[in-house]
């Protein structure tokens, strides 16, 4: 990321120099002007992402995270498509959790269709990853996948980003530029943070969804586009409709098929498996042969509430792999927020306050959750003590090894996570 004032002059040559570095960086430019002319000029000169310097911190972080996620996918060496990019698959969401299994079954039913999809879920649950997986396993997989974060651009630039512009449409538009819809022709367009789209563009988007025709800025003739639209948001769109921030007719058009990704705190049994998977991915990037996490660290990972969901889990693991002094992540290698979960007790916080994960659940559901936490904590301690030897852990627990294997599978516990280096 670089401020426009720091780009070597002339700008076109400076941006080209950056783009041609051996590291093949993604060029993200912050600039002072939010005019279409400035935006169009920087894009025409080769910038990958252009943001206004006064963009809010939340939007800036979201844009950076989107760029980093794209880089992560490019850096992974397995499951590559014909262009050498990672191809997410729906099985990435395979889970031991009943709610998540129902969700994946629902995804599989709609993935091969051409229906418009609305993906809902909290920040960090993997909405764009799911959209890419659906595209990769659809009949459009050979076509382009174009992602647009509708909250990352000023209102007056977003229309050009989506629909394109003709040469001379405004000062600085020295050449025509195709928008995201036209670039996605024959494939899929992913509209992230759709709940943040300004009202005036919502009306234009609705017309596109109805007719699949776009009119670039400065253009006169409509252009037909063959695209599948997948939208996503972490906002409550029904509430946004009631507050007048989102068009009711657009909401009805988008919500024909909606998919809600469960947050990580509702599928804690997946955490041990995700830890192994993410550490395998991160090992190449971090450059350290960290082989697992200790029992205490795993307990903390399983008990934490994960407001940032899967994205936060991956960031915590990367931090732990960078900081740990041995071949295994220990409790002290985790952030203080995770360590305090263990020291304050597994189930109750200060003054006996109930965990947030209990909110809205019946007593039976809470009992089941607590029972699973007790099972996980006990078996994690037993497996840690026996260094992953299931037979010895079964003897300590007073259960049959086959029964322990079944419980471990249900809880997502892997013996490999408890083996010492």
**What's the helical proportion of residues?**
40-55%
How far the N terminus sits from the C terminus, by CA atoms, comes to: 39 Å
Unreliable stretches covering 5 or more consecutive residues: 76-85, 345-353
Count of strand segments: 14
Strand order of the largest sheet: 5-8-11-4-12
Structural classification = alpha/beta
Strand content: 5-15%
Helix count, DSSP H or I runs of 4 or more residues: 17
Q: For this entry, what is the oligomeric state of its chains?
A: single chain
Mean pLDDT: 81
Globular, elongated, flat, extended or rod-shaped: what is the shape? globular
Rg, Å, rounded: 24 Å
Biggest sheet details: 5 strands, parallel
How would you describe the overall organization of this protein?
There is one protein chain. The protein is of the alpha/beta class. The protein is built from 17 helices and 14 strands. It has helices at 11-19, 36-44, 57-75, 98-111, 127-136, 155-163, 180-183, 199-211, 237-242, 248-254, 271-286, 295-303, 309-323, 336-343, 363-385, 390-397, 401-411; strands at residues 2-3, 28-31, 49-52, 117-120, 145-149, 164-165, 177-178, 188-192, 213-214, 223-224, 228-233, 258-260, 292-293, 328-329. The strands form 5 sheets. It has a 5-stranded parallel β-sheet. It has a 3-stranded parallel β-sheet with strand order 1-2-3, covered by helices on one side. It has a two-stranded antiparallel ribbon with strand order 6-7. α11 (271-286) packs across α13 and α16 (390-397) crosses α17 (401-411). The longest helix is centred in the C-terminal third of the chain and has 23 residues, at 363-385. It starts with a strand and ends in a 10-residue tail after the last helix. Residues 76-85 and 345-353 have low confidence and may be disordered.
């Amino acid at each position: 990321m670089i401020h426009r004032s720091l780009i070597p002059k002339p700008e076109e040559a400076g941006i080209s120099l950056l783009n041609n570095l051996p590291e093949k960086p993604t060029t993200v430019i912050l600039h002072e002007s939010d005019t279409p002319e400035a935006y169009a000029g920087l894009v025409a000169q080769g910038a990958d992402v252009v943001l206004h310097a006064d963009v809010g911190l939340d939007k800036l972080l979201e844009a950076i995270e989107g760029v980093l996620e794209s880089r992560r996918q490019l850096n992974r060496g397995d499951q590559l498509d014909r262009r050498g990019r990672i191809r997410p698959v729906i099985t990435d969401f395979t889970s031991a959790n009943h709610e998540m299994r129902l969700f994946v079954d629902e995804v599989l039913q709609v993935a091969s269709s051409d229906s418009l999809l609305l993906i809902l879920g909290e920040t960090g649950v993997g909405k764009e990853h799911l959209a890419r997986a659906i595209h990769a396993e659809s009949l459009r997989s050979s076509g382009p996948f174009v992602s647009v974060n509708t909250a990352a651009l000023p209102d007056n630039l977003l229309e050009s980003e989506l629909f394109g512009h003709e040469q001379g449409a405004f000062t600085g538009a020295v050449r025509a530029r195709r928008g995201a819809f036209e670039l996605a022709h024959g494939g899929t367009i992913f509209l992230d943070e759709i709940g943040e789209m300004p009202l005036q563009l919502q009306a234009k988007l609705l017309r596109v969804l109805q007719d699949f025709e776009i009119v670039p800025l400065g253009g006169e003739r409509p252009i037909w586009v063959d695209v599948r639209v997948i939208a996503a948001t972490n906002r409550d769109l029904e509430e946004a409709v009631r507050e007048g921030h989102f068009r009711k007719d657009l909401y009805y058009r988008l919500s024909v098929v909606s998919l809600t990704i469960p947050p990580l705190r509702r599928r804690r049994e997946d955490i041990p498996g995700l830890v192994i998977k993410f550490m395998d991915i991160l090992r190449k990037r971090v450059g350290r042969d960290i082989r697992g996490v200790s029992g205490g660290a795993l307990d903390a990972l399983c008990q934490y509430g994960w407001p940032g969901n899967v994205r936060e889990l991956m960031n915590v693991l990367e931090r732990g792999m960078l900081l740990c002094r041995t071949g295994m992540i220990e409790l002290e290698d985790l952030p203080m927020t995770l360590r305090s979960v263990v020291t304050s007790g597994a189930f109750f916080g200060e003054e006996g306050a109930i965990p947030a994960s209990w909110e809205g659940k019946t007593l039976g559901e809470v009992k089941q959750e607590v029972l699973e936490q007790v099972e996980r904590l006990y078996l994690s301690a037993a497996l840690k003590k026996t260094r992953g030897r299931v037979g010895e852990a079964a003897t300590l627990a007073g259960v049959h090894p086959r029964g322990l294997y079944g419980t471990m599978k249900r809880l997502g516990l892997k013996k490999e996570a408890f083996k010492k280096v």
